[in-house]
Amino acid sequence: MSKYHLQTIHKDTCLYTSKLKERKLILALYVDDGLLISDDKILEEAIKHLSQCFEITVLNPKCFVRLELHRNPVEHEIKITQKYYIKKIVERFALQNCKAIYTPFEASQKLGIDGCPDGKQHEIVNVPHREAIGALLYLSQRCRPDIAFPVNLLSRF
What we know:
This protein has helices at 42-53, 83-92, 129-142, 148-154; strands spanning 7-9, 12-20, 23-30, 33-38, 63-64, 67-72, 77-81. By secondary structure, the protein is of the alpha+beta class. Strand 1 and strand 2 (12-20) form a beta hairpin. 4% of the residues are buried.
């Protein structure tokens, strides 16, 4: 890709940018997935060039590394969500009937040694704890920092 003079971003070595004659090209890499972004025909040229150098598959850019990208060209916005991944977590751990709340965790809540709030009896849910915590940690690091504290707290039990 030297043709496009891509240069690594100092703080993230998996993100490359190029600016040729006011034509901007951005390449994000994650293991064997890549996302190529541009504002004009340079995108088609870059994809063609990449396909000559590597075996690539061009897919819909609405999903990248479990992140759903929603573009609003009118408002010049891009929103990142993980609704599909959250739905898969809920299905995987059979938690469809759980009570929804707006606050991920009450700050005054104290957990006992069994992971339940002190003094309260709850129905024991048979969930593979490590797998559930791992899925929630992944989610909290991508687009849900609001659940990072409770997930890390629950990982202690």
